[in-house]
What does this fold into?
Amino acid sequence: MPSLNPALAEVRRAVRASLSALPAGSTVIVALSGGPDSLALAAATAFEAPKLGLRAASVTVDHGLQPGSDEAALAAARTAAELGLDPLVVSVEVGTAGGPEAAAREARYGVLRDAARDANAAAVLLGHTLDDQAETVLLGLARGAGATSLAGMAPDRTDDDSGVRWLRPLLAVRRETTVAACAAARLDPWLDPHNRDDRFRRVRVRERVLPLLESELGPGVAEALARTAEQLREDAQAFDDMIAETIEDIVEPAEAGIAISVAALAANPPALRHRIIRHVVQSEFHESLSRSQTLEVARLVTDYSGQGPIDLPGCRARRVGRLVEFSAGGSGA
Ligand SMILES: Nc1ncnc2c1ncn2[C@@H]1O[C@H](COP(=O)(O)OP(=O)(O)OP(=O)(O)O)[C@@H](O)[C@H]1O
It folds into this structure.
């Protein structure tokens, strides 16, 4: 018997490892764009899911953003059916809020979430690879992002509100491996022109920056960036747990919002203090603070000399005696 192609074997192994965490009898949905990553994922899922007693379906979202996208979506669904998946194509109207890319992402995740709930699926599988993770970390570094962003994408995450579980089985697999796996399985991926359009920063990172880093610093840079993400993910999780433990005791309701004890904030190291401040604004006012805004609020604790209220996105912070008080208002988003 000829031995299995190594790329195909690697993708199947990665998918088997992810799927084995799911209860037998449940359904998984592959988010299938038709590109090489999600196509390799779909083929491996079709192969591995039945062996684990899982039912497998695919959902392809047609964003309608370019000519022929409907045919590409139907072709992906046809391939999914040939592979043995139960395919679904959903067309969406993409708005413009936040730019077409962000709007398309929003619409896509909405469709996937609805499909997961309709099918009572145990998980939705996404085709992000190690290369996607490395690109995310580099883009984050270039923006001066904090540990939460540099932690990149989670291999396994459950939405707080919808309860949908998202798995990324290929997060440790190189993109070239998914391309090779498709070739070995004689699958013909759809190549999204957006993925070559170098007006996008991510495309420039993919096509020029990462290859340059790998050629100048030696191979293994992408793997190293992905390892950084993994380590920061552990750190970020530890901080989240600490915040959850601390916050109940130090936050109290205030007149038009919420207040934190100055003494409690001062007692925490800066890394935790700053996260508590950001967490309170995020959970209470659904806004994100920049680093400089966070530091300005922290000075109400560490460097208070009677400064007035600080306008922040969605709220206002001020020192009131032994408290830092956050109240609705401020500069808006
Ligand atoms: N139109 C879509 N329909 C369904 N799922 C999608 C769609 N676009 C992206 N996804 C899911 O999100 C993942 C990441 O999307 P991204 O845009 O980074 O990948 P892609 O360029 O479409 O390539 P690939 O399919 O090779 O991953 C995909 O692997 C896929 O699982």
Q: What stands out?
A: The radius of gyration is 23 Å. The chain has a mean pLDDT of 94. The longest helix spans residues 221-250. The chain is about 50% helix and 15% strand.
